[in-house]
Amino acid sequence: MSRSITVRAPAKINLLLGVGPVRDDGFHPLDTVYQAISLYDDVTVAESAAWSVDVEPIGDVDVSEVPLDDSNIAIRAGKLLTAHHGIGRHAAIGISKGIPVAGGMAGGSADAAATLVALDRLWDLQTTDDDLLAIAAELGSDVPFALIGGTAHGTGRGELVEPVADHGTWWWVVVPNVEGMSTPAVYRAFDEVGSDEHSGGSDTLAVRTALESGDLDDLAAALHNDLQGAALGLRRDLVVTENALRQAGVLATLLSGSGPTFLGLVADQDRAHQIREALVEAGHDGVLVATGPVAGTHLVDYV
Ligand code: ATP
């Protein structure tokens, strides 16, 4: 049997997502505070004659929209890493997916980060941290954060990440939506609506101060997502989801990234499970409980 390596990477949420006006290169400058939460994809790699990818769900996650060809970001990550080292090796990549797909929680980015770390170990490539972060940034704006995890301030298009102090253990009720949302479509709607309000600076500071003190009410008051208005404009059904979370008694609601997943901040684990049960009884599917911050991409098995 050939050697295999399994690496785990977490989902992300954006406690603050400040989005500036679109740049000439088509990207939007971001001022964001990421948090890694306890929903994970596990990626297992083994040497193979050709690149391949296989995906299996964890729990109720719908994996039907995940591509199984070379467009899968895990294969793109593998190709970029081998090109960087000038080697002609290939791997079979298996993904166990616990992060809802196209949900605004960067599941694909998690797979890319996990693949980079797994292949680096499998082939003992000893890629430096700086090179790994640079390759990650080339794959996508959220991939560097998936590598480092925890809680971090993100700038540039989100790829420049700096860890920040976070002294809380925060609990989230996570409400995915069966119908995923295209990130570019949400940004287009954001551009069309146009806005003079771009969060950053003092908004970021408010989130960082709440995290540093561990104050739940302050964090509840500081959560904000500039894309939320545009996303709710595209998908009115999400207003129903947000109202359901509010009625169930969460302290604050927040759209995750570009959506459609909605998050509710709650006081503790028991409260999170109570609210999850209330939402399930009210007919909401696939509701999850998660905590953060959690570690970034890390090795879990070596066979
Ligand atoms: P983003 O905000 O980065 O656009 P997301 O968090 O909303 O993404 P992802 O689960 O990363 O959503 O998937 C976005 C799209 O990327 C999917 O609809 C799918 O077509 C494509 N994709 C490519 N590779 C993967 C992968 N390994 N896992 C999930 N989706 C993938």
Topology:
Layout: E1 4-19, E2 30-48, E3 52-57, H1 73-85, E4 90-97, H2 107-122, H3 129-139, H4 143-148, E5 151-155, E6 160-163, E7 170-175, H5 183-193, H6 202-213, H7 216-222, E8 224-225, H8 228-234, H9 237-248, E9 252-255, E10 262-266, H10 269-281, E11 288-292, E12 298-302
Parallel strand pairs: 1-8, 3-4
Antiparallel strand pairs: 1-2, 1-12, 2-4, 2-5, 5-6, 7-10, 7-11, 9-10
The chain binds adenosine-5'-triphosphate.
Residues 65-67, 72-74, 95, 101-109, 111, 140, 142, 180, 183, 257-258 line the site of adenosine-5'-triphosphate.
What would you say this structure looks like, in words?
- This protein has 303 residues and is α+β, with helices and mostly antiparallel strands.
- The chain folds into 2 domains: 4-164, Ribosomal Protein S5, domain 2; 170-292, 2-Layer Sandwich (Alpha-Beta Plaits), CATH 3.30.70.
- It has helices at residues 73-85, 107-122, 129-139, 143-148, 183-193, 202-213, 216-222, 228-234, 237-248, 269-281, and strands at residues 4-19, 30-48, 52-57, 90-97, 151-155, 160-163, 170-175, 224-225, 252-255, 262-266, 288-292, 298-302.
- The radius of gyration is 19 Å and the shape is globular.
- Adenosine-5'-triphosphate binds next to α1 and α2.
